[in-house]
Amino acid sequence: MSAIFAAYADERLGATALANRLNDAGQRNRGGRLWSNQAVLRVIRNPVYIAKITHGTEIYDAKHEPIVDEDLFARAQALLDERSAEPAVVAPSTSEYLLSGLVRCQICHGAYVGAGAHGRNGFYRYYVCRTRQAKGARACSGRRVPADDLESAVGSSLLDTFSRFEIFEQGIHEVYAEIGNERPRLEAEHASTETQLRETVAALNRYLRAFEAGTMPADLCAPRVAELSARRDELTAHRDQLVAQLRAAIPELPSRELIGEIRVEIERVINHASPDVVKQLFAELIDRVEISPDNHAYPYFRVPDAKKPGPIGTRASCRTPVRMGSHHVEVAGVEPASSGFSMGLLRAQPAGGSRSPFRHRPQDGLPADLDVPELRVSGTVRVSLTR
């Protein structure tokens, strides 16, 4: 641990650079996982390494010997304070990334976030895997995706989908069948999660009592308490999600007229509204967009609930995602796939002459170090019960 503090305080390495050094050297954190910049910062901030332990806002002397020299620890804290006082780099407005919070990596299951780089002809926007950005290619091989291409392709797929009422008929029939099959599994999983949560809370309380009684040193107690606390929070969140799924109402199929009205509104917003309004529309009707290892994008759209009147966002709040678009959407146009049924999934034929509602940024003048693979959007229609 002293080497981590020395690299940070004396070599003045940043947390991300230090995490990459540790990962490249084959070192792993206490949980056996790759280091991230946040994991490095948690170590540097932790006074347990100088024989101190925190409880709330109070700091107490622990019963174990210091692991890191107090002067080295103090220099690291001073550098932390110095860096936190530096003015932050102004990030692009979130409205510039219309799919913020919606793009997921199929490799690591983490989020894609907005990023950018300057080229000869201006600023180029991308979505990048947060895991790869924080921990490097060793942690995830997910590749960056041009933001203009992804937003344009997903917008076109959304318009095409709302032109096909039969897609919604197929999707809602599947969700009815899945609800009937899923409920016994959800109830069993909820009972199991409740049991695990009780056991985790009991174990956490035992460690805390042992520390308070002085029968367990802090250097052994603190990591286990942190691990159990994280596990408790994870189980609590999962239990709450299961309860929400069990209580969720069954959505009603929207009418053909309602789907047509929503499509007209989608087209109006995409073609004429501000980026903030387009982003809000995407957040209401798109559950997620998954990026695969071969750089395909799979969008999941929400089925509007006919039982909930009001604006699009209210009707879409049932959050029943439908995986849409069995075609490949490329920069040059649309490449249709065959229509029909296969393995219980409806394959949709995109409308001919589909055009992108977004303006593409020219690709010449890209920074030389950027690896920008071709993006495609594809998928098959499927309903899942994620709400």
Task: Return residue spans where pLDDT drops below 50 for at least 5 consecutive residues.
Answer: 86-94, 313-375, 377-387
Distance between the termini: 43 Å
**Which class best fits the helix and strand makeup?**
alpha+beta
What percentage of the residues does DSSP assign to strands (E)? 15-25%
Radius of gyration: 25 Å
Number of helices: 11
**Could you give the order of the helices and strands?**
HHHEEHEEEHEHHHHHEEHEEEEEEE
Q: Averaged pLDDT, please?
A: 74
Task: Report the sheet with the most strands, covering strand number, pairing sense and barrel closure.
Answer: 6 strands, mixed
Instruction: Provide the domain count.
Output: 3
Which percent bin holds the helix content?
40-55%
Question: Care to count the β-strands?
Answer: 15
Short key terms for the protein model shown above:
387 residues; alpha+beta; Hect, E3 ligase catalytic domain fold; 3 domains; six-stranded mixed β-sheet; three-stranded antiparallel β-sheet; 11 helices
Topology:
Blueprint: H1 2-9, H2 15-24, H3 37-45, E1 52-55, E2 58-61, H4 70-85, E3 103-105, E4 112-119, E5 122-129, H5 130-135, E6 145-146, H6 147-161, H7 165-213, H8 218-247, H9 256-272, H10 275-285, E7 286-291, E8 296-302, H11 312-315, E9 321-323, E10 328-330, E11 333-335, E12 340-342, E13 345-347, E14 376-377, E15 382-383
Parallel strand pairs: 3-7, 8-14
Antiparallel strand pairs: 1-2, 4-5, 5-6, 7-8, 8-9, 9-15, 10-11, 12-13
